[in-house]
Amino acid sequence: MKNKDLIIKVARRLDKFNLDEIIVVSELQEQEVKAILSDLIKEQVIIKSSNKYFFNNKRNNEQNEILSTKNNTLKPIILEEEEGYEELLKYNKDVQNKIKRYVAAINFVINAGKGNLKRVVELFNETSGLKRVPYSILVKLLHNYKMYGFKGILPKYHNHGESPIPDELYTCFKNFYLTKEKLSAKEALYRAQKLLHDEQRIEQPYTYNLNSFTRKIKTDFTEEQIKYFRNNVKPLKAKISNDENDEPLDMEFKNAARIYLNRLKIENKQERLLHEKTYYKNHLKEYFDNLTIREITPKVVAKYKQSMFDKGFKLVSVKQYILLLKAIIKGVCPKINNLVTREDKDRRNAYALDMNILTEDEILNLLNICKLKYPEAYPIIYISLSTGASVPELLGLTWDRVDFEENTIFLKYFLYDERLITNRSGTSKRKLKIDKRMTEILKEKYKATKPLPADFVFRFSSPKLPQQYFENVVLNGLSKKLRIQRIYPSDLQHNFTNLCLKQKIPFTYIQKSLGYFGIINFVKIYRNLIEQSEEKYYNPLENLNPLK
Hints:
The protein is mostly helical. The protein contains 27 helices and eight strands.
């Protein structure tokens, strides 16, 4: 029964999901999840369509109707006459105003009588002029009001569920925060975690939302009390050292990830857990799992970023994975790790990528040798250098996305291992113009192979995966033949950009051709190339008629 309730709770939060997603979040066995889903489908709690599951909101709306009917038995709240009013006055003004807003919403619902509760709440939010009251919170408050009366609306009651903040940690945080040392909430939390960990009262420190601590402080004490404590109470005598022995720099990344994800599970952040667990398993696990925190340096992260870029991932996506990497590390090493606490003066360009820029002669030689030695790969290199399309995008190109009449290709996917990955941003899905010479080459290839519309345009007669063959055989072979630094797939896009900059082609055209969301990211990535294309002196009047 407990697992069934968990599945319902997760389904309500996700609203739409597939079997793999619900298994990842619930961490239950596949057979058990399937059995529970089957029961819920029979009970019409969940609806299944193809391989997708949906939480039955219609059934939820029917429950809203029943709940709104029950509200007729509740009496409107008159604050001054309610038991617990004196307790309300003990809270600070912000909490009092929030409770009064909740009371106004409850009275509005009670006076509305029968009707769909969700619509009534929306009407209150639109007409009251007060800060919006979320529907889920109001449902909980109505239940508490019915069970406990007015006292059920007060924070001590409607926050009665298990707090994500352990009591022991909160008490220790309070002892550091409410002193005349006037520590920031961040520093007070660090010291509290450090003290409890040293005394072996907690495991490795978790990542917490600081707002949870400060909000609880403001609920427990008035503004005057907080001000008095922070001006008069002597600080605890605790030795806080920044010695790297204090933090587990030799912990393996996989253990740090387990601690971080368990923290999300304890805090009941199901949607975030789903996304970040997926990011970790698909994009961080293979690369970082067996490294220690000490070994994950900016140089290692830069290599990871470059490898992801070569595989076809956009920089915006890779940034999300690196942010998760930093969050996991920060959870166990908030002070020492240089990925988290680097000073501004030591901060490298977060967008920087290694680029192998070729001369014009080297590019021409590259194309000529490729045409002779690797004819099946020649169109890929030519199109990438002439349009800005990435190699993974071209390897994922199918014949139904080639338009011979308009001389265009439509890029919607990129090939990652043996999977087609959809480009998420709208700018990555783009139509690029190819020249007539390349159109004729593709036409001849089409006539010779007679493919189906969904067949890939570029395929190699090699047992290796297409991307591995192209990178390790074709590009590596061409690099050795030309006797130049090894070329990687992303270098073709970098050289396209360099050629465009030298020919004074507008930034916006280059950015759109590469599929970047905005000009800002493009400029940050190619800042060095842009600066190299600058001249020492510009005079915009030189090409005008002589001034009179």
